[in-house]
Amino acid sequence: MALFLAFAGAPDPIAEWNHFEKSVRDQTIRKEEAKKKFPLIFQSLKDLCRNYSFGQESPWLFPVQGYGVKDMGAGGFQPDIRYASSIKGYDFYDGNRHGGHPAYDIFIRDQNQDSMDDRTHRPVMILAPVDLLILSIESNWNTDSETRGGRYIWALDPLHDRIFYFAHLNEIRTNAGAFCRTGSIIATVGRTGKNAQPSRSPTHLHFMVLNIKESVLIPFDYRKQF
Ligand SMILES: [Zn+2]
Asked: What domains, with CATH codes, occur in the chain?
């Protein structure tokens, strides 16, 4: 019984990350506190990954099925610009107010903006580009929401200390805590998010990868990985 209680009382790193990530997004945690907490949570998530056999994937699998590097917005990776925010440059700890565009947008053929591929009339699958542990998902989004990412996924590559972020999703097909092998379907491309839903925005996946160094999360220009 004592053993059971001890086990039940152990912190769940996935639950901790979920609470943390949403607190940072919604700015309900102070930046300094978040910076102190992040390395501890990150280490506990990496420890959790020892339960799975992560493989190295090189080159990466392209995350949007049926599309390729040519569909990545030219000049999309600009972490230091002023973009959709009063803040210049990307800082993870700015949450939903963050500046910069530290990602590429991967555009699909969707003239009528129904989140279906115009050629196949089917949803476009998002695949895990490397082996990933799914850290958190946001599936509650509606058109009144201020959340810029819309429906999104955060995931971890523990072999390279990287976290992956997939935003503006339509349907999420995985869960927090799931281990996803390269090529597993994790979601479908959508138009969710404050700036992704208006018709001025062509349908795309916003795909960001951050390199982790202690409490600093550095946007990674991953184009050459494909
Ligand atoms: Zn974007």
From this structure: 2-225 (2.70.70.10)
Q: Is 140 left (phi over 0), alpha (psi -120 to 50) or beta?
A: beta
C-alpha 85/C-alpha 101 separation (Å) is 10
Ligand 1 mean position, distance from CA 72 (Å): 10
pLDDT tens profile 34-65:
999 999 999 999 999 999 999 987 899 999 99
pLDDT tens profile 193-205: 999 999 999 999 9
C-alpha 149 – ligand 1 centre gap (Å): 9
Ligand 1 centroid, distance to 177 Cα (angstroms): 25
Report residue 118 CA to chain centroid gap: 25
Cα dihedral value 186, 189, 190, 194, nearest 10: 80
pTM strictly above 0.85: yes
Judged against a pLDDT cut of 70, whether residue 1 lies above it is answered with no
- Cα gap 162→143, rounded to integer Å: 31
Give residue 66's Cα distance to chain centre. Answer: 20
